[in-house]
Amino acid sequence: MDAIFRHELAHLRLRDVGRVRLAMAAGWLLLLGVTLPMVVALARDPGLLGTGLLVRMAVVLVVVLLTLCAVLRVREHDADLAAAADPRAPRDATATHIGRALAPRRTERLVRSLGLATHPAPAVRLAVLADPARSWGLSSLECLTTGLAAGLVFTDLTLLVAALLPDHTQLAYMVGGLLTGWAVSGVVTVAWWRAVAVGHRDADGPRAATAGAAIGIGVLLGSQLAGRAAGDWVRDTGTADGLATALSLTQVPPVQALALGAVLVAGGALFALWSTSLARALGATVDGPRSAPVCATAVGLSGLLLAVPLGSWFLFARLTAARAAPDIRWAVIDTPWWVAGALTAVVGALVPAAAARGSRHPGPRGAGRFRPPVLLAAATVLVTAGAGWAAFGSEPSRAPATHISGDSPVSAARTDSPNSQNQPDPAASPVSGSGDRTVPLDQLPVLPPKEERTDAMRADTALVCRALSLGGAAIWTDPRRRADMAELLGGLDDTVLRAASDVLRRDPSGPVDTHALVASVLRCDLYFRYGR
After folding, report:
1. Which of 194-198, 286-290, 342-346, 453-457 has the highest mean pLDDT?
2. In the chain, what is the straight-line distance between the N-terminal and C-terminal CA atoms, in Å?
3. Number of CB atoms found within 10 A of residue 37's CB
4. DSSP per-residue string spanning 111-144
C-alpha cells in the first residue's frame, strides 16, 4: 500500500496528470470535433476525395491512439523512478510491489502486443528501475512517429501561414519549416541530448543515424497520409489553386518519388548526427550549467537548421505532385539565400561532428570507431543528387494533364471549332468506358469562343471561377486573355469580382495588380467552399 501511494503521489509531483488529460482531450477532440463531422459530410457527399480522406483519417486516429498509449506507459516509468527515489520510502518497496504483479492474462498479452496497453509490462518496469538510464534513449520507432506527425501537419500549417503571406509562398514554406522544425527538435534533440548525457547507446553514431533516417521516412509517410495527399484538390473540388494543395506522389514518375524519399532519409541522418555531435561537443550533462539551458539553445538552433531544408522539401513535393515544369522547380533553389541555408545545414552538421571527435566528453562505447565526416559527406552527396532529380526530374517537356467530362459544366469549354486557340491534344486517347478524355492543362480551354457563349454562361459564377482556376498565369499575363477575363468578371453579380474587373481594365497591358489577383482567387475559393 505504501508503494502504491508513493507511486500515485509521484504522478502529482511530476505534474503529468494535467498533461495527460490535455493529451486525452486532444484525442477526443480529434475524434468528435474533426473526424466524425467529416465522416458524416463525406457519407452525404463523398466526391472524388471521399475514400482517400476516410482511409487517411482512420490511419491518423490509429497513430494518435498508439501514441497516447505510449505516453501513458512512459509516465508510469517516471512515477516508478520518482517513488523509488523518495528517501522516506522503504528500501526496494516499489520494485517489490511491481514484482508481485500477477502474470498477464491472454487478453492483456494481446492488448500489449498491439501497443494499446497503458501500463508497461512488470519486467520492463523492473528493468528501468534497475537502470534508469535505459529509459533515456530514442528508438527508431519513436523517431518514425515524430516524423509522421511532422509530415501530417506541415502542409496545413504552411497554408495557414501562406494565407497571411499570399505574395510570398516560398517564405511561407520556410516559416512552416521553422515552426515544424522546432516542434521536431523539442522531441528528438532533447532526447538525444539526454542520451548523450548518460552515455546511452542510442546516441552512438550508427544508431543515431538510423533513427534520424527513420525521421525522414516518417515525414515522407506523414506527408502522404495527410488529407492533402488524398487527391488533386484543385481539380476534384474546383477550389482555387494556392488555397488547396495536391501532395500525392503516387502519380509522379518513380524516379522523382525515390529521389524525394532519399533526400529525406539522408537529411534525417544528417540531422541526427548534428544533434548528437553537438551534445557531445558541448559536454551534455544530466544537470548543471550544461544541461537544460544549453539543451534549450540546441533546440532553437536545430529548428533554424531545419527551416530551409524542410520547407524546401515540401515545396518540391508540392510542385512535383502538381507536375510543375522543371524551371519552376529549379526556381525553388535558384536563390542565394536558399544556397546559404543549405550550406549552413551541411556545414552546421559537420562542425560539431568534427569538434566532438576532439572533445573531452566522449560519447558512448563504440563512438570512437564512428567517422562522422565520411557519412556526412555521403549524406551531402545524396541530398545534392536528390535535389537535382527533384528539380529537373523526367518528362521535362510534357505538361500536366487533367480530365474533362462531357457532362460537366466545364465540358462547355471543350472547343472543337477551327476558331479555337486551344485545341485538344491529338495524341490524347479516350478513357475507356466513358466520354472523358485527357487534355494537357496548357491546352485546356476554359470557356468556349465568344460567339458560342450564352448569357447564362456569362452570368454563371461557378463557370467563370472555374475558368479563373484553370486558366493559370496566362489569363493575367496575356493582355488579350486578361481583357477577356475582366469582361467575364465584370458581368457577374458579385461586388468583389466586379471590383477586380475594374482594376484589370485600368491598364490592360501593364503589370498585374496582385491585389486584384488575390481578391479574385480568394472570392472564388469561398464561393466553391460555401456556395455563396
Report:
1. 194-198
2. 65
3. 10
4. HHHTT--SS--HHHHHHHHH-GGGGG---HHHHH
Closest CA to 187 of 216, 140, 146: 146
Q: Is a pLDDT exceeding 70 seen at residue 377? A: no
Alpha-helical (H) ranges within 168-253 are 169-198, 205-225, 233-237
Q: DSSP assignment, residue 325?
A: -
Quote the cell numbers at residue 64: 494518435
C-alpha closest to that of 218 among 187, 194, 255, 175? 187
Strand, helix or coil at 429? Answer: coil
What is the per-residue pLDDT across 419-474, written as a single tens digit (0 to 9) for each? 333 333 333 333 333 333 343 444 444 555 666 667 776 777 877 887 776 666 66
- CA separation for the pair 60, 469 (Å, rounded): 31
- The 8-class DSSP code of residue 441 comes to G
Measured CA to CA, the distance from residue 151 to residue 63 in angstroms comes to: 13
Counting every residue, how long is the chain?
Answer: 532
- What φ, ψ does residue 303 adopt, rounded to 5°? -60, -40
d(CA 317, CA 191): 29
Looking at the DSSP bridge assignments, the partners of residue 403 are 438
Q: How would you class 487 by CB atoms within 10 Å of its CB: exposed for 0-12, middle for 13-18, buried for 19 or more?
A: middle
Contacts of 133 (CB under 8 A, 6+ apart): 198, 199, 200
Where residue 185 falls (left for φ over 0; alpha for ψ -120 to 50; beta otherwise) is alpha
Cell 528493468 sits on residue: 127
HSE-CB of 109 using CA atoms within 13 angstroms: 5
- Give which of 162, 492, 445, 479 is closest to 315, Cα–Cα: 162
Side chain identity at 330, as an amino acid letter? W
pTM value is 0.67
C-alpha triplet 97, 100, 106: angle, nearest 5°: 125
| Gap between the Cα atoms of 155 and 144, Å rounded | 18
Q: Which three cell numbers stand for residue 337?
A: 539565400
Q: For 347-371, b where at least 16 C-beta lie within 10 A, e where not — what string? A: ebbbebbeebbeeeeebbeebeebe
Cell numbers 545524396 correspond to 382
Q: How far, rounded to the nearest angstrom, does the alpha carbon of residue 527 sit from its chain's CA centroid?
A: 27
The answer to whether 274 and 349 are in contact (CB under 8 A) is yes
Residue 364 near residue 200, CB atoms below 8 Å = yes
Look at residues 106, 64, 68, 87 and name the one whose alpha carbon lies nearest to residue 6: 87
Cβ neighbours of residue 67 closer than 8 Å, sequence gap 6 or more: 145, 149
Tell me the longest C-alpha to C-alpha distance in the chain: 94
CA angle, 179 then 182 then 187, to 5°: 135
* Buried-exposed string 48-65: b where 16+ CB fall within 10 A, e elsewhere: ebbebbbebbeebeebbe
Asked whether the beta carbons of 400 and 438 are under 8 A apart, the reply is no
